[in-house]
Amino acid sequence: MTQRSSGGGQVKNADVPWDEAFDSIAYLDHNYRDLQEEDAEILQIIRDHFGDHFRKQGVGPVSGIDVGAGVNLYPALAMLPWCDEITLFERSSSNVEYLDGQVDSYGENWDKFWTALCRKKAYRSLDVDPREKFRKVVKVEQGDIFELKRYGGRWSVGTMFFVAESMTTSPGEFALGVERFMRCLAPGAPFAAAFMAHSQGYHAGEHFFPACDVGESDVYASLERFARDFKVRPLKSSARVREGYKGMIVAHGWRCNSDADISYN
After folding, report:
1. Which of 156, 157, 150, 178 lies closest to 68 in space, CA to CA?
2. What is the largest CA-CA distance in the chain?
3. Are 103 and 84 a contacting pair, CB within 8 Å?
4. Residue partners of 48: CB distance under 8 A and separation at least 6
5. Cα 187 to Cα 92, 152, 172, 251, distances in angstroms
6. Name one GO biological process term (predicted).
7. Would 154 be classed as within a structural domain?
8. Which of 25, 30, 120, 212 fits 47 for a cystine, CB–CB 3.0-4.6 Å?
């Protein structure tokens, strides 16, 4: 199934009524009320990546960003032990409202996700209650992913989960979304990103939202100019959170040290 705008072309990010139509609670209920098999596998990958990075680096507190946070808190939880500031960057007004309501004390459903992270010592060893630290370090910022251009190199660790391929049918916008994410990270910053493979779109409540049909090679191509020592891998899990996609892809690695020779789209 190919999604088309009313004019017969690709559905661009700007065509989508994110503020009026996205049902945040319906999306949360379907995807994150429980810890699903695919997310458990993702949590294992990213907790090991971030945990091993910061154990080896031995650096002090850093700033983190989750681009397109939606109603998903587990990327922020995955960065929590090492950050003194985490920005949840999100476009949809209803998602922003949900995130704002979670900062002071996030919902009990997220305890399952934190427990999964705590299989890594760095999370178990956190010297404060995770809700207390979350309250102190997390802030919500409303904005469009393409606006990240003004924040070149701002953050020292970053995540982007199910965003670039889930906001448009345009391959160009998908690639530009990945670029905006990568360029907002400082040289050498660890990152993790997740993508729906060959998604045909999805519902958030009654409304249907666009997706770009991407596979492992597309994800790799979108990252290779901006990342080093990175891996792109399909999940092993055969579980599916919904119909209309072939699996999930996780990418993780480090922002490359320099891209001065690369033009900025």
Report:
1. 178
2. 55
3. no
4. 120
5. 29, 10, 24, 17
6. methylation
7. yes
8. 120
**Global pTM value:** 0.93
Q: Number of structural domains, the chain?
A: 1
Q: How many residues would you count in the chain?
A: 265
CATH of the domain at 233: 3.40.50.150
**162-213 residue pLDDT tens:** 999 999 999 999 999 999 999 999 999 999 999 999 999 999 999 999 999 9
Low-confidence ranges of the chain (pLDDT < 70): 1-8, 239, 258-265
